[in-house]
Amino acid sequence: MKNVTNYHREDAMSKKIHDKTRKIVRFADLASQWLLSVSRGVKESTLAHYNYTLNRYLLPVFGEISLSSLDEQRLERGILDVICATKGNHKPLGASSSRECLTLLRRICKYAAHLHLMRSIEILVKLPQEVRAQTKPLSTREQAALRDFVLAAPTPRKVGLLLQMQLGLRIGEVCGLQWRDFDFKAGTLTIRRTVRRIYCGAGKTKIVVQTPKTKSSGREIPIPHDLAVLLRQLRGNAKPNVWFLSGNAEKPVEPRCYRKSIQGYLRRASVRRVHPHALRHTFATTCLQTGCDIKTLSEILGHADANITLKRYVHTDMKRKKLEMQRVFSAVWKKRPTQVHSLA
């Protein structure tokens, strides 16, 4: 009986200490602990993005609140304040940023429940609807104009446009290329790294070179013969460790700078101003419209799932639609002329 009494006393004391801890621990403390727990399992850029989202959006609203004060109502009201920018610290969030903030908040609360600092809480809010503006790929005329501009006086920076438009590379992947990645004997290009600028706190950023976006993004791409010839001429005597765009072995060109160069090239080529990612869209659309199967294209683009390719990168226009409708149904009308006349 004495042992049972002692057990209940210890349990009550433990609960009392635990409740006191919950009152002391703020959401900001919990968020810091969660970041530390996930830091070794994610890329530096991913961790930087978590840090940015927390400091920019979540901590100004939840940071000083004790865990004992957090319940469904307070969490849902708080995330709506973040989305609607009630405090005026930032602009109202769109669908993508809203979803990221809600996902991060849920993960941190789940972590707190795992540590027994909070009960399991389900946060239910209606997020803004996503309005995805369809990226219009370059027309055949625009592609020809851009290609002619590049070939008139080719440089690695200009040829980088063709790597996006004819191989489907992302801008960060072009920035991350070294000459060692081109195998002219095999006629292939291997994507091994990407370059991006990340948040590192206190309003500061830095450039990082890291592995590609996903596991499937690290890929080997066949290079069309004419493009391979041009690249071989450009390389000259450059060593394998020289960065493709910068032309030196010290550091790569960062995407922000290269993006500005691309806009200048588009203007000089008399091509409408588009986001660099439109070049990748153009590649995907061109491949499909000329008969490339979706599985092959998906692997060239570095997608884990072919559905991503279909949903995001497949574009068509009215001219193409008319041609396909005519191709499909012209044979049907030719086969049954007698019935058509009788119906008339």
Could you walk me through the main structural features you see in this protein, from its secondary elements to its overall organization?
The structure is a single chain. By secondary structure, this protein is mainly α. It folds into two domains: 2-114, DNA polymerase, domain 1 (Orthogonal Bundle), CATH 1.10.150.130; 140-319, hpI Integrase, Chain A (Orthogonal Bundle). The chain has 15 helices and five strands. The chain has helices spanning 2-24, 27-38, 44-62, 72-84, 95-114, 140-152, 156-167, 171-175, 225-235, 255-268, 277-289, 294-301, 306-313, 318-335, 337-343, and strands at residues 182-183, 188-190, 194-199, 205-210, 220-222. The strands form two sheets. The protein has a three-stranded antiparallel sheet with strand order 1-2-5, with no helix packed on it. Strands 3-4 form a two-stranded antiparallel ribbon. A hairpin with a 5-residue loop joins strand 3 (194-199) and strand 4 (205-210). Helix 3 crosses helix 4 (72-84), helix 3 crosses helix 5 (95-114) and helix 6 (140-152) runs antiparallel to helix 7. The longest helix is centred in the N-terminal third of the chain and has 23 residues, at 2-24. The radius of gyration is 28 Å and the shape is globular. Residues 1-7 have low confidence and may be disordered.
